[in-house]
Design goal:
Function: Condenses 4-methyl-5-(beta-hydroxyethyl)thiazole monophosphate (THZ-P) and 2-methyl-4-amino-5-hydroxymethyl pyrimidine pyrophosphate (HMP-PP) to form thiamine monophosphate (TMP).
Number of strands: 19
CATH superfamily of the largest domain: Ribokinase
Strand content: 15-25%
Protein name: Thiamine-phosphate synthase
Oligomer: single chain
CATH topology of the largest domain: UDP-N-acetylmuramoyl-L-alanine:D-glutamate ligase
Number of domains: 2
Family: Belongs to the ThiD family. Belongs to the thiamine-phosphate synthase family.
Organism: Veillonella absiana
Strand order of the largest sheet: 13-12-11-14-15-16-17-18-19
Bound molecules: adenosine-5'-triphosphate, 4-amino-5-hydroxymethyl-2-methylpyrimidine, magnesium ion
GO molecular function: hydroxymethylpyrimidine kinase activity; phosphomethylpyrimidine kinase activity
Length: 488
């Protein structure tokens, strides 16, 4: 079996002092149900007898083999690689998917000879030199730690964050973090470049192994998988709104951004001087190119000026079953320039709204969609309800420009939910709407639920405004490059 990087995300190792046989297998199965992506059977010396804690059970070769076969069968069922710690011969005998060996165990070359090229070999390497050597000698991945103080190996001194990151960034094979990792400290390893989290106690000491693993898996996948997003929008030559704002926002979120350009605008902080639409056919070709290769985990839609462009986007989103979709119904730029044809509005409402996961109108746009006038927070609530009742998609109604606070309103099947924000005294708000919708799409791409994605995006917008970038002669752009912490 050839190892793929994403298979290391949730690396579950069996506990040293726990049940044997079927009981262990049952616990491993719960972790598989919860989303374990790889299992390592690790049995050292003797283990405590679960029926009498004053006694120990010696792990005989027979017992080890019996357990290995049970867990191997489970892993096959869940299509997850099965590794054995240390015991190269047992791995060879039962044709396990791989082994994990330590610095003091059999050399990689020898293990390779016994196991062959297709078997995964992982090596423990807690120092940079060891990690580089492991790579050079042909290891498929490296396990490094302890990243935190651990009860499983009392003697392990934790690596510094920097030392661990250096190991991750110095070798082209994936690095799994090990040692004292828990659901609550794993965030600290984000952006180190690690491939996965090896966990024992935090999973097996939990009364509900499946739920615990699934919470850990959600966090792990968010941090280690590459996430992708597509923006379908217009280019802003001044770089503060449209495609340019979207790609910068995605990058700030560590999401790989792609684009399908609907129009070129000659624009700066003082306004739009000219618009040049792409042809519907060419827009369709861009969408085909993207969707047939790198599938986006989320889509953001911005400026679409004509009925024909809207129709081709709707057709392609349906064809490729694209979701989730964040639709920013761009009608008017901050500067007041109209960015959509009169007769495109019907197509937007009839063809595109039904495909949206969430739409993000500002107040003037919500007035058009609801045919209501919005002057107060109560008007916002009413209009959002009208739009929800008419079109059935979640609405984020942005209070930014018109009503003098920074509170936005979410209306979904559960009714009203206000997202409050501190109004920042910054006259430079060019591209706030584009940036907000791209931040929502980025968070959705990473797997956050919709409401949390919106709340995180709102906090990101506040950060980009607070940075007080001041460029251009009109309403200037935001500081997209602000550092986003996990706890944003
Ligand atoms: N001065 C401000 N302080 C804090 N938040 C703000 C401020 N201005 C706008 N926002 C926030 O920015 C987000 C975008 O809302 P806004 O109403 O500006 O969108 P928009 O009109 O579509 O923008 P765009 O000009 O890009 O089209 C909202 O979350 C809004 O609350
Ligand atoms: C290209 C483009 N898209 C959207 C907006 C909305 O602000 C803008 N100003 N420019
Ligand atoms: Mg807008």
């Amino acid at each position: 079996m050839k190892l793929t990087r994403s298979q290391l995300a949730v690396y579950v190792i069996t506990p040293p002092t726990y049940p044997t046989g079927q009981e262990l297998a049952d616990q491993v199965e719960q972790s598989l149900k919860g989303g374990a992506t790889i299992i390592q059977l690790r049995r050292k010396g003797s283990i405590i007898d679960p029926k009498d804690s004053t006694k120990t059970i010696t792990i005989t070769p027979e017992l080890m083999r019996e357990e290995a076969l049970l867990i191997q069968a489970l892993c096959k069922q869940y299509n997850v690689p099965f590794l054995i710690d240390d015991n190269v011969q047992l791995a060879a005998d039962i044709k396990a998917d791989g082994v994990h060996i330590g610095q003091d165990d059999m050399p990689i070359a020898e293990a390779r000879k016994i196991l062959g090229d297709d078997v995964i070999i992982g090596l423990t390497a807690n120092k940079l030199d060891d990690a580089i050597r492991a790579y050079e000698e042909g290891a498929d991945y490296v396990g490094s730690g302890a990243v935190f103080a651990t009860g499983t190996k009392n003697d392990a001194t934790p690596l510094s964050h920097k030392a661990f990151e250096t190991i991750c960034r110095s070798i082209p094979i994936p690095v799994v973090a090990i040692g004292g990792i828990t659901e609550s400290n794993m965030d600290q390893l984000d952006t180190t470049g690690l491939a996965g989290f090896a966990i024992i106690s935090d999973i097996f000491n939990d009364a509900d192994i499946e739920t615990k693993t699934s919470r850990i898996a959600q966090k792990a996948n968010r941090m280690v998988l590459p996430h992708t997003a597509l923006t379908i929008a217009g280019s802003d030559s001044s770089g503060g709104a449209g495609i340019q704002a979207d790609l910068k926002t995605m990058m700030a979120h560590h999401v790989y951004g792609m684009s399908a350009i609907t129009a070129l605008t000659a624009q700066n902080t003082t306004g739009v001087t000219s618009i040049f639409n792409t042809t519907p056919q060419f827009l369709g070709e861009q969408l085909d190119a993207v969707f047939t290769d790198i599938r986006p985990d989320a889509v953001k839609i911005g400026m679409l000026s004509t009925k024909e462009l809207i129709q081709v986007v709707a057709e392609k989103l349906r064809q490729y079953d694209a979701k989730p979709v964040v639709l920013d119904p761009v009608m008017v730029a901050t500067s007041g320039a109209r960015l959509i044809d009169e007769n495109a509005l019907d197509a937007l409402v009839n063809d595109l709204l039904p495909l949206a996961t969430v739409i993000t109108p500002n107040i003037p746009e919500a007035e058009i969609l609801s045919r209501e006038s919005i002057k107060t927070a109560a008007d916002m609530e009413h209009a959002a309800k009208t739009i929800f009742d008419t079109y059935g998609c979640t609405i984020l109604l942005k209070g930014g420009h018109t009503i003098n606070d920074a509170n936005d309103l979410v209306y979904d099947a559960n009714g009203i939910h206000w997202i409050t924000g501190q109004r920042i005294q910054n006259p430079n708000t060019h591209g706030t709407g584009c940036t907000l919708s791209s931040a929502i799409a980025s968070n959705l791409a990473k797997g956050y639920p919709l409401l949390e994605s919106i709340e995180r995006a709102k906090r990101y917008i506040s950060l980009t405004l607070s940075a007080m970038l001041d460029l251009g002669q009109g309403s200037g752009p935001l500081e997209h490059g602000v550092k986003i912490k996990n706890e944003l």
